[in-house]
Amino acid sequence: MATTTTDRNQARPIPSGEAAPKFTLACTPDQKMSLEDFRGRPVIMAFYPADWSPVCGDQMTLYNTVRSEFDRFGAQLLGISVDGTWCHVAFAKDRKLQFPLLADFEPKGEVARRYGVYRAGEGVSERALFVIAPDGKVAWSHVSPIGIVPGVDGILDALEGMAEQKS
Amino acid sequence: MSRLMVPVGPNDHIRGKQDAPVTLLEYGDYECPHCATAHAVVLRVLRDTRDIARFPFRNFPIAEVHPHAVLAAQAAEAAGAQDRFWPMHDMLFENQDALELDDLLAYADALDLDVVRFARELEAGVHLERVRADVRSGARSGVNGTPTFFVDEVRFDAEPTVDNLTAAMLLAAQRRAG
Q1: What pTM did the predictor assign?
Q2: Predicted confidence (pLDDT) at residue B174 exceeds the cutoff of 70
Q3: Residues 6+ apart with CB under 8 A from A86
Q4: Which domains, from first to last, does chain B contain?
Q5: Per the structure, how many domains does chain A have?
Q6: CB proximity B142 to A under 8 Å
Q7: What domain range includes position A110?
Q8: Does residue B63 contact residue A65 with C-beta atoms inside 8 Å?
Q9: Interatomic CA distance for residues A59 and A155, integer angstroms
């Protein structure tokens, strides 16, 4: 689809090797989380357009199912969208998600913008993945066509690559 | 492009000729409504491509949203241990809204399985590791929801309709022949 290609070209995800922009976002109505909280561990940041996507087996549900694969690398998974915390709470409860969903809500999409993956026209983020190395640098990033849920193969390859380098 | 990272091997359940040139592989969940729809589609596609196709099925239960899916997957594997994987596979998809343990035992009985052995294997989780290994291989291969299909080891990202899948398989067969 031509439109998808154009959309993808607009995204400029932070490339590998650069420092991952810092952020602090609410993960529940009364708790915040910062990227720096996870220094020393790999972090997987999964930007997605919105909670309650109508896709069966949606992206966050899928990642929840395979989260033990991330655990093997000691990696922390974070879901991020522009939805507010109450929306995230309801969504996480409904899908029984076992990892934090961060609210990139105010200023809206600010973190997505800093990572180069905000879709200003629609007011949502791309479906974008970042793997952040334990030292806080971007190890891998990927932007998916918005209608296609990215599997976790790229994430696992990146985590494995880092683990091999270390050993 | 996502590719199948664990090749089809002797442990796979394969419908069709084992050495057929084109492989349509599915990662699926017996409680997923889209997979039940796809089941009918696959049967139709396999009828139309009978001479060229084989169909391995691997488990990818989305446990948190489909609470019966992991047990149902084990039931198919337990039937497989008695060489009745495909009859159970069909039975599960055709009765997707009845996947309680009692239902599974009734299906085992209807398929003339050794029900005592079947029940014992489910109880002991004998096939759980196999199911988990399928999920791991799916994660590695870029499974991005259920069902996810691969045609000759390449993830199939179009809508899985009879026409789309058949076309992709005929193309794969041509490529092989070409």
Answers
A1: 0.93
A2: yes
A3: A29
A4: 13-177 (3.40.30.10)
A5: 1
A6: yes
A7: 2-166
A8: yes
A9: 13
Q: Is A84 left (phi over 0), alpha (psi -120 to 50) or beta?
A: beta
B130: exposed, middle or buried (Cβ count in 10 Å: 0-12, 13-18, 19+): middle
Nearest to B80 by CA among B69, B88, B72: B88
Give per-residue pLDDT as tens, B89-147: 999 999 999 999 999 999 999 999 999 999 999 999 999 999 999 999 999 999 999 99
pLDDT digits (tens, 9 = 90+) for A45-64: 999 999 997 764 589 999 99
Best of A59, A61, A62, A149 to substitute, by most chain B Cβ atoms within 10 angstroms, is A62
Q: Is the pLDDT reported for residue A9 higher than 80?
A: no
Identified catalytic residue from A5, A56, A93, A164 = A56
**pLDDT of A6 above 80:** no
- Phi/psi of residue A28, nearest 5 degrees: -140, 170
**Can you give the length of chain A in residues?**
167
| Euclidean distance between CA atoms A33 and A27, whole angstroms | 6
What are the residues of chain A with a beta carbon less than 8 Å away from any beta carbon of chain B? Answer: 55-59, 61-62, 64-66, 69, 95-97, 148-154, 156
Overall average pLDDT of the A54-75 stretch: 88
A56 part of the active site: yes
